[in-house]
Each structure stands twice: as structure tokens, then as C-alpha cells.
Amino acid sequence: MIEARADIVGNIWKITARVGDEVGKGDTVAVLESMKMEIPVVAPAGGYVSAILVDLNQIVQEGDGVVEIDDTPSA
């Protein structure tokens, strides 16, 4: 399991991935809002979304996990 992590402190503005979705390396899985800018959170590798670790409007810190990605689909 790997995690897509926040690159900057920000507010979770949008979650674009859902549990069970297949994502590719570099796909946007969520969007942060910081200083009126939208910053994508991208998948570091391809796989299947196994968990969403945040809620909309949640403040995250740099390095916080946002989405878990597994190499096998969840049942």
C-alpha cells in the first residue's frame, strides 16, 4: 500500500477519487486549496484506491496521507 500525500499545507477542496477506482501514476486524486490556489494531490503510482484518509474541508499538513492506493482491487 502507498499513499498519495499532500505537498503543502492546505484545505481539502475536492476529492476526485473514490474507493475502488483504478488510478494511474500522476492521476489527480484530490485537490487542495491554499492561498487561493488549487494544488492537485497526485497518485505516486498506479493501482486501486483502497481508502480515502481525509474529509472535504479538512486542513492537512505537508506530508499528510490523503488517499491509500493498493496494487489489487478491494473486494
Describe the structure.
The protein is 0% helix and 52% strand. It has 75 residues and is mainly beta. The chain is elongated. Strands 1-8-6-3 form a 4-stranded antiparallel sheet, with no helix packed on it. A hairpin with a 2-residue loop joins strand 4 (28-34) and strand 5. The mean pLDDT is 95.
Which runs of at least 5 residues are low in confidence (pLDDT < 50)?
A: none
The class by helix and strand makeup works out as: mainly beta
| Number of separate strands | 8
Oligomer: single chain
Q: What's the rounded overall pLDDT mean?
A: 95
What is the overall number of helices? 0
Q: What is the H/E order?
A: EEEEEEEE
Q: Report the sheet-strand fraction.
A: over 45%
Biggest sheet record: 4 strands, antiparallel
Q: What characteristic shape results from the CA principal axes? A: elongated
Radius of gyration computed on alpha carbons? 11 Å
Strand order of the largest sheet: 1-8-6-3
Query: Percent range for helical residues?
Result: under 10%
Termini, distance in Å?
15 Å
Topology:
Blueprint: E1 2-5, E2 10-15, E3 22-23, E4 28-34, E5 37-42, E6 47-52, E7 59-60, E8 65-70
Antiparallel strand pairs: 1-8, 2-4, 2-7, 3-6, 4-5, 6-8
Tag the structure with descriptive keywords.
single chain; mainly beta; four-stranded antiparallel beta sheet; 75 residues
What's a quick, concise take on this entry?
The protein is an all-beta fold and 75 residues long.
